[in-house]
Amino acid sequence: MTASISTSRQGKAALPRGNDGRTLIALSLCAALVLALFVPALPWIRVVDQEGLYSAMELKPSVIGKLSPNHSVVTFLSFVETSKQGVLGFWSFLLLLISAAAIAFCLLTYAAILRRNRVPEGKGMLRVYAMFQRGMLFSFAAGVGTLGLILYANRNYGLAGFGPGASAVAVPLISVLAYLFSKKHEKAERARCREHGFIREFRKNWILFLFLVPCFLFFLINNYLPMTGIYFAFTQFNFRDHLFASPFVGFKNFGFLVRSEILHLTQNTILYNIVFIVVGNVLQIFFAILISHVDNKRLRKTSQTMIFMPYFVSYVILRVLVFNMFEYEVGLVNNFLVTMGMGRVDFYNTPGYWPWLITAFYLWKNIGYGMVVYLATITGISTEYYEAAQIDGASIYQQIRYITVPLLKPTFIILLLYALGGIMKGQFELFYQLVGNNGTLFNATDIFDTYVYRITTTQPLSMGLGTAAGLFQSLFGFIVIVVTNVCIKRKNPEYALF
Question: 248: helix, coil or strand?
């Protein structure tokens, strides 16, 4: 026999794969070559007609002296910022993101190669192919996008001022050839693993894919297209030039946030949210367990409704209630203190009270909503567990400890991950309605959301600052949820989100 049959870890016969090593070397070299072409020192865009281009841009001699004739995908944004040509900013920024994705997938290709021997038989090469092909697709898009940017810029200025560099031509060509090479070897790998690709899956279940189209369009229109507004964070927006032509200012808006009270705002926002998450979930579980053990059906329904009702109270109504309770002259609490022979307390000029008050009113308003989620989970627990525990002589407290609480763990982890994703996004309505513009209380109650609101309403055309703050919040929450998910996945993989 010319080829022996080897047995895989699952006990099934599999063909030998002697060409895998040479294929991995080829893929690694292609990925390394593409990565090398993204080095900032290599030219992607060249200024061909410098005199004509700078004249069309109406640049001053002092600005021209700061400009280089050759630019990579990374440095071209600095050219846009220095020359104040905002009309090229958005497309250059988009091109930079595509290039970053290409570089990331090329690096993930190497990670997949290193992990290849730690996955089930046959799956490692498919993972390598998947990462490599995505990297080549983004690399091709970066190269074609660069050529498109050059054509757009030349058309905008009415002359051939820009030209493609070596990388802009080489990357699309290499990406296409490498992609076709990987597809050829992936086909053989799928045959060995007895797995079919997307095209066969689509032909088999095209009706199911058709039903996904409305969902895809919904998220595309409502979630992904609005993400282009992130570009606001890097511009000095004005209505004359609109989003796609406003001056590109780089990280100037982020620098303003760093110079402001960003550390104090971050501390306040995180600490408040940690208290809300921890104390809120504990109380929600506590009340859910209490209500689940109420035998009287009418009493159980009434208690559940009474606890849930505050959730429907408007924050505006809550502001009126709080003001009438804690106002200095006519507040209910101060009138009660005077009746008891004690002095009045100036709550609205004493910051120390408000972290406790804000936390208390948040919990009062939101405990009922979270309690319903945990109560639904408790209702879904099979009664056989409790019956068996009663037969074994377990008390009600032991049943809660060893049955109810452990089975609530998956729900708690999922809700925790969702909550941590928004740990930098405070309860704006709660803080703004209870505190308003009372500067005396800002030190103890100011969070990112209220700070951004004041900036965008008090400073003209400060959309860039607001977007920069929102982007910082989103990235912070993304990092937190990824790190938390990794920690959970190591101990309880079945509870992880991804």
Answer: strand
